[in-house]
Amino acid sequence: MPNKKKLSFWDMWNLSFGFFGVQIAYALQSANISRIFATLGADPHQLSFFWILPPLMGMIVQPLIGKYSDRTWCKMGRRKPYLLAGAIVAVLVMIFLPNAGSLSFSSRLLLGLNGAMWFGLFSLIFLDTSINVAMQPFKMMVGDMVTEEQKTEAYSIQSLLCNAGSLVGYLFPIFFTWIGIANIAPKGQIPPSVIWSFYGGAAILIICVMYTFLKVKEMDPKEYAEFHGMDPAAASAEDQNKEGLFKLLLHAPRTFWTVGLVQFFCWAAFMYMWTYSNGTIAANCWNAFDTASEGYQAAGNWVGVVFAVQAVGSILWAIVIPRFKSLKLAYVVSLLLGAAGFISVAFVHNQYVLFLSYFLIGAAWAAMLALPFTLLTNALKGEHMGSYLGLFNCTICLPQIVAAALGGVVLKLCGGIQANMMIIAGVLLILGALCVRLVSVKRPEA
Known about the structure:
Layout: H1 9-39, H2 47-70, H3 80-96, H4 115-145, H5 148-178, H6 192-215, H7 221-227, H8 237-240, H9 245-250, H10 254-285, H11 294-320, H12 327-345, H13 354-379, H14 385-392, H15 394-413, H16 418-435
Helix pairs in contact: 1-4, 1-5, 1-6, 2-4, 2-14, 2-15, 3-4, 3-6, 4-5, 4-14, 5-6, 5-11, 5-13, 10-11, 10-13, 10-15, 10-16, 11-13, 12-13, 12-16
C-alpha cells in the first residue's frame, strides 16, 4: 500500500471552502424558482416543469465534467479549471436572471410562455448547468486527495460548508427585506429583495471559489498515481479514458449500485419536501388554501425559515457523523431521524413546532451530502474517479426527475392533500434506510 499523506483540518477546509459560495447560489435558485416564475406569469400547473430542469441538467452535465476532468492535467490543475469556469458563468447568470421581469417582454410566445419566462427559463438552464460545473470538482478533489480514513471527515466538512451556504441563501431575501429593501414590485417584476439576494450570492460565490482555487494545489499525474497505488501510466490521459461512460457504468463496483439505490429513495423524498412543504404548512398552520391569501404568503415566508432550521440541523449533525464507528450505522440513524421529521410535518399545526421536524430532516440531509461519496470513493481505485462521481450524480438527479413527473399522480392517490406527501417522503426515507444494509464498505484490492 502506498504511504499516503494525511491532510490537516485546514487543508480539508480549503478543499471545500468554495462549496460554501456555490451552495448559496444553489439555495437561492432552489428557494426562488417557483417564486420567480410565478411572478413572471407562470400558471401553477407549469411550476413542476421548471422543477424538472435543474436535476435534468445535472444528470447531463456532471458525468461529462467527470469524464473530461479525468483527462485534464494542466498548470492550473485537474479539476480547478472547471471549477473556475463554472463559477464565472454562474456569477454572470445570477446577475441577469432576477432581472427577467424588468425586460420588455409581455406577449405570449411558444407554449403559452411570455418572453420574460423564456428568458428566465434559458437563464435557469445556464445557471443550473454552471452551478453543476462548479459543484462537481469539489467532490472530485476530495476523492483525489484525501485518504480513505479521512474521507468521512472531509465530506462532513464539505457538508457543513454546504449547509452553511444553504442557510445564507435561504435567509438572504428576508435579510434584505429587514434592512429596508422592498419585498414587493410591480406586477410581473421580481422584488428588489430577491434581486439583491442574487447579487450578494454572486459576489460571495466568486470570492469563495477564488479562495479554493488559489489555496489548493492539485497533484500532478505522478503524485496522483503514487497516492492511489496506480501504475503511473494509468494516470495519463491516453490510458485512463479509453473506456466510454457506458462501459464504465457496466463495470461499476457493487457499492455504486447499492448506494445509488439508497440515493433513489432519499432524493425522491426531498423532492416532495421542496414541492409540497409550502402547501402543507399553509393548510396545517394557517388554514390557508388560496394562493393569493395573506396566510398562504405568510406560510411561504415560513418555508424559508424552516428550511434554514433544516440547514442548521444539517450543520450540527455533520459534526456528529464522523463520531460514529460505523458508516452504515450513521447512515441508517440519519435517515430514520429524517423520516420521523417528514412524517411529523404532516401532523404539526403549530409553526414553531415545525422547527423540531425540520431539524430532524437536517440529519438526513447531512448524511446524504457526506456518506454516499465517502462510501463510493472508498470503493474506487484511482482510475476514473471523476467519471464515476459524475455518473453517480445521476443517482441524485434521476429520482428527482421521477418524483417530479409522478408527483401529480401520487398526490391524487393521496386524496389531493399535500400533507400526505410528507408522509410519503418519510416512508421513502425508511425504505432508503432499509437498503443501507445492502451497501458494501469494503475497498477493492488495488
